[in-house]
Amino acid sequence: MSDWSAWLVVWPVAIPLMGAALAVALWGRERTQITIGVLAVALQFIASLALLQHVWVHGPLAMAMGGWSAPFGIALAADTLGAGLTVVASAVALVILVYSVADTRADHWKAGLVPLLLALMMGVAGAFLTADIFNLYVWFEVTLISSFGLIVMGGRREQLDGAVKYAFLNLLATTILLIAIALLYGMTGTLSIADLSGKVAALPDDPPVETVALLFLVSLGMKAALFPLHFWLPAAYHTPLPTVSAIFAALLTKVGVYSLMRVFMVVFPDSAEIARDVMIWVAVATMILGALGALAETDIRRVISYTVVSGVGVMVGGLAIGTETALLGTTFYVIHSIVISAALFMAAGMIARAGGGTRIADLAGLYKGSPFLAVAFLIAGLSLAGVPPLAGFWPKVYLVQAGLEVGAYGIVAGVLISGFLTLVLVGRTFALVFWREAPEGARAIGPDGGPVLKGALAVLVVATFVIGIYSAPVVDLSLRAAGDLLTPAAYIEAVLGLPQEAANLGASGTEARP
Amino acid sequence: METTLAVLVGALFAISVYLLLSSSLIRLILGVFVLGNATHLLIFVTGRLTRESPPLIDSGLKVAEAGIANPLPQALILTAIVISFSLFAFLLVLSYRAYQSLGTIDTDEMRVAEPESGTPAMRGRDV
Lengths: 514, 127
Prior knowledge:
The structure holds two protein chains of two kinds.
Chain A: H1 11-25, H2 30-58, E1 61-64, E2 75-78, H3 80-103, H4 106-110, H5 113-129, H6 133-151, H7 157-188, H8 193-201, H9 206-224, H10 232-236, H11 242-267, H12 273-296, H13 300-321, H14 324-355, H15 366-369, H16 371-385, H17 393-406, H18 409-435, H19 451-469, H20 472-486, H21 489-496, H22 500-504
Helix pairs in contact in A: 1-2, 1-5, 2-3, 2-5, 3-5, 3-11, 3-14, 3-19, 3-20, 5-6, 6-7, 6-11, 7-9, 8-21, 9-11, 9-12, 11-13, 11-14, 12-13, 12-18, 13-14, 13-17, 13-18, 14-16, 14-17, 14-19, 14-20, 16-18, 16-19, 17-18
Chain B: H1 2-20, H2 25-46, H3 72-102
Helix pairs in contact in B: 1-2, 2-3
């Protein structure tokens, strides 16, 4: 009757949903919940791999939910970028979850860590795979509401303080996103991203389009933590459990960056000049001020939070340039940043175990207690700074090359200066935390955690090393993703040209629109 | 009709921005609430207002004749109301818990997570 392969695009969203529902049903049985969590994320990873393989061979894939074909109904659609990021996100989430099994205390599992994590993964995959812009807002809210639950888990005073700022500012950002979507709908009468692509280009006058594009930049930029809208991130990301910090830093800002890429490359491909000009300078400021902010911080988790902000600037800088090489660099950097942000926050969790805190002033001489942690932190940090041959080096090469080609010297300077500042930062942090000799009478260095924690961190550190040495597959993937964004014809055709029959195949209950 | 509602939406946005600029958590909560409602009304207006023409399709027709009320914005608003209501409930609980444990509702005084550092970062032995 029809094409069962279209179901591939549903599973990365549906599996975590089913896992979350099952985990809620089994409330109180933490061990079973943990098993379900690990299984669900592993299955999500496998499903997204299958999806990526299909997209790689056959091109973009779409499926209409509930049999309402686009542009009237909601479709899920995957191109190389969406499918590729789902693969990387679920892989890193799996590693973080394994880390969490050894790291998280029993009372936090009792509080529902597994269902919330799975709901978060559903929201992230949904945002990567949706082809409807209102649906994108819904996935943002799914992610947001589960992240609220995660960030206050533990209930310490500083967590509540961080959560207040995180909650208000993120809620404001999604509301602004909703305003932008409403205005866009008012102008075009459609919500399907593929349909918008043509209709926005056909709009007669520019000022309203520019306004809506700027509203998208503000709201998604706030989600991605672009300067000067980034203040919620360093206010909150250092407070929750190490697991939660790792998964937030790895995924949430990247969903914002992905949405910026989708909106500005597919919905506003040729318009939004003002927003693009603003984006260049905002990106440069984010890169440099993020790195400077990190240098000024005294808490190791806050240092890492600021480096996440700096990385967002690098990614958005590539988007602002918008050529094929630049988008290749941006996509590569998103993948690199997902891996490395998770690795650094996991390392910070282990440093806190070994050193008894996260204030750099209190930490010293950890090299003696844990040479493994020292080496892992150093490799992750050098990759973050972009030292060859690690993974962080290549995207910066492409971005600098792209910037020189089109004469965007601001971006080139920003990437190089922020890389230099990050290198200084990593060297200084490493020297203080690991090399400095502990003063007399200092607290003894504790154990840094068991083999599971070390193994999980090692997987990510080895990954950043291997991607650096053998970067061809990631470059191919990013190049194809950049091509899909620049010529979205295949994506648009996949969404709009859905045969009625395939559309009738079926509803999956993953949609939130009543 | 659209113009009247557009002015109303603008007034609600102005009120919510004024409230959101405050440092009191209570005013922030109210500001978020007004902002949400202004947005819902905005979605409603962007769907165009057509009076007394229900979104029904005559039997025998596949597509409605022109001029019916647009049902989609109402579905969108319903979704947005459900979401913003649940988030609003969460914000209320969060703010109350924050007041209980931090002892203040003034955001300027909420500095537990970001202490104003008097300690230099690298006190202790030089490297």
